[in-house]
Amino acid sequence: MMNSLKFKLRRSLGLNEIQERVAHLTRQNQELRDHNQVLDARLRDTLDYNHRILNQIEQLVGKKKIQLLQEIIEQSKPGSIINCRMNYCDLLVPVELLQLCPHCLHPTEEKKLNYLLETHCVDWLSSYIEPGDTILDIGASFGTISIPLAKIVGAEGHIYSFEPARKTHNFLQQIIEINSINNISVVKAAISEEPGTCEFVEYLNSDSFSWASETSTLNTPTRKSDFDCLTYEVQVTTIDDFVATHKITPNAMKIDIEGFELYALQGGKQTLEKYLPYLCIDIHPDVKTGKTALLGVEPFLQSLGYTVTMEQHTLCATPPEK
Fold it and tell me: Are 168 and 282 in contact (CB under 8 A)?
């Protein structure tokens, strides 16, 4: 009796039809959801494809832009002074420097040439140095590391940039003068484990060796090269002698001297033990062994309590707590 009443009540209220309608709408809703998911997936695929196409177009435009800028620089008159941004600094530089590093050109939306050279060294050192600090840049080349660090240490700080190669030294001095940089001193001397004099080899730039001047170095009995070069005598000092003579307290050093890394450090052991500077060292084949200088540099620094890590071809050494 009760079930019969319930059936009549449901029929009179139309509940069966409502349930069927709800079930039908539920199925339709699920079908719409499934369809929308398919559309969303297709839309995402389309957007991803369009994004890839736009990236490829931007890369092609960027490469063409770089090529055109490189051609303009290459065809510039010798002795021209170019306004550019180099390692985060707005500078006037001789065009000859830019002609040496076309691969370092990274155009930006700003209407200015933008060059990035060994920025990992600048980035690492800048995280430790402060205004007022003293830094030794040993193997300064054209000052691409010295200048941004000079900006950080400010007027109260100072950079000593060691560059014995005649041509490179002259360009570095010129860059400092035309940009009115007052806290960089260019030192025309090489650094090794003993003071004195030594024959220096300055490689000449050529089409097949555009970075020749960057690899100029002290001469050694094992040096072999088929490239054109000049040789002449240069003054050699040690880190310890220079620091003691000038009565300075180095907070950091950057060393890039083509295989003499270990011998520069050995000539600066007292300085490292006393002042515990941060060190950023470009690693090359050792001039005496021909093997990577890391084999000697790493244990030497670890014996002094330094923690060392490698970033690209550069050893970054953090001193023990002072």
Answer: no
